[in-house]
Amino acid sequence: VFAPTLFSKAYGSLVCDACTYSDGGNTTFICRSCHYDLNNYTLFHNHIEPLVYSVSVLLPVAYIIGLFFTLKTHSHIYDIHVGEGHEIPEIVNGIQFALQNNISLSLEVGSCIAVQVCMLQIPLLVLFNAICDVGFVLIFSDLHLWASIFSVIVVNYILMDGKSDYFQGTALVVVYLILLALYFFAPSPVGC
């Protein structure tokens, strides 16, 4: 999902609108309103846009392959938990696992829901954008990129040993509260 973002940051141009020279003993510039130039027709339309469409095709393919692999190798899990009620969403199963003190399995169900959003809904949004241009180009800000990477690392650390305790749960909540504060105090981008 972040491949177009990383590509645009590696090969795009950083444009700053309001730079001032500060002479406080050292030569520095103070710049505001900096962003990556997406108006570069050649870079965006010849390189980034095809990459967005390629990623949008590969994500559902990876999801389907993973689904077939999971159903083939872990069918006994699906007979026990999913067989309880076909109309009950995964979220209810995750809550039931948490109420039974199986927090690791509950977090695993939540992670699977996030993967489904990434691998199914994002390609649908890209398809919708191809039909009706709403500006969804899979290029995210540095804040979104690093918050996502950090969240994945923390969740993988907690799920690594297959069990959790109150300390790990509290640490996870604190990390997410820090990310919430980060987004709350971040300045609004121009045009929002």
Q: What is the alpha-carbon Rg in Å?
A: 21 Å
- Range of strand content: 5-15%
Structural class: mainly alpha
In sequence order, what are the helices and strands, one letter per element? Answer: HEEHHHHHH
Low-confidence stretches: 80-88
The count of DSSP E runs of length 2 or more, i.e. the number of strands, is: 2
Termini separation comes to: 23 Å
Helix percent reads 55-70%
Q: Give the strand line-up of the largest sheet.
A: 1-2
Give the number of helices: 7
Write the layout of secondary structure elements.
Elements: H1 3-11, E1 14-23, E2 27-36, H2 41-73, H3 75-80, H4 90-99, H5 103-131, H6 142-159, H7 166-185
Antiparallel strand pairs: 1-2
Helix pairs in contact: 1-2, 2-5, 4-5, 6-7
For this entry, give a set of tags.
mainly alpha; 7 helices
Describe the 3D structure:
The protein has seven helices and two strands. It has 192 residues and is mostly helical. Helix 4 (90-99) packs antiparallel against helix 5 (103-131). Strands 1-2 form a two-stranded antiparallel sheet. The chain starts with a helix and ends in a 7-residue tail after the last helix.
Briefly characterize the structure:
The protein has 192 residues and is mostly helical. The protein has helices at 3-11, 41-73, 75-80, 90-99, 103-131, 142-159, 166-185; strands spanning 14-23, 27-36.
